[in-house]
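Quick one, probably user error.
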């Protein structure tokens, strides 16, 4: 039984937070150089805090997490984005898993120290 379509439908039903997914793409210039351009994709997401087990797995891989979340996104590209932004928060993407238009990103909140 193929359940991939069911996973995508379920993810789109629970995705209730509007967000912007930012991809940094290098575009080749006429002179042979390249320029990094940030391309946004607007979609909906479901955001939940990372569980201690997930934080431990990231730590074992050498990734430090302070305010980690798991973000389920629908209708996205298979390219790994650099950042995911909502009205209230910005997150850097730590891990990216993609399957047929639905992705799960484990992220850490981007904060500005001393402000």
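Nope, works fine. Designed sequence:
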């Amino acid at each position: 039984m193929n359940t991939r379509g069911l996973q995508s439908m379920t993810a789109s039903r629970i995705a209730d937070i509007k967000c912007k997914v930012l991809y940094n793409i290098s575009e080749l210039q006429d002179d042979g150089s390249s320029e990094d351009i940030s391309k946004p994709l607007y979609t909906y997401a479901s955001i939940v805090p990372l569980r201690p087990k997930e934080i431990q797995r990231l730590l074992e891989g050498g990734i430090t997490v302070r305010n980690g979340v798991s973000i389920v996104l629908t209708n996205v590209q298979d390219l790994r984005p650099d950042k995911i932004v909502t009205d209230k928060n910005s997150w850097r993407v730590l891990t990216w898993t993609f399957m047929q238009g639905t992705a799960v990103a484990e992220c850490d909140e981007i904060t500005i120290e001393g402000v």
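The two ends are 52 Å apart (CA to CA).
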